[in-house]
Amino acid sequence: MFMTIEISKKEQLEFLDAYFLSTAEAIEMLQISKQNFYSLVNRNKIQRIKKNGVVLYFRDEILERLDNQNVLRRKYRPFEYQD
């Protein structure tokens, strides 16, 4: 038998904010264009979660992408970083 845990709406929103981002939040955090973002999603570089028309992204995955972004930019766009 399953056990039901009651949590308030405030706690539910805090959970969502702690673990997930909206499209706009992810784009803003990564500081990339919508086109670039959707390209990453379509190439499965960023996983999306869809439920009843709502699309969310894992916060940890976006933060990891953000951490690796400078390395990736230097690798694939070296002409921007010539010393």
Automatic annotation (TrEMBL):
Span of domain Helix-turn-helix: 20-69
Protein name stated in the entry: Helix-turn-helix domain-containing protein
InterPro entries xrefs: HTH_17 (IPR041657)
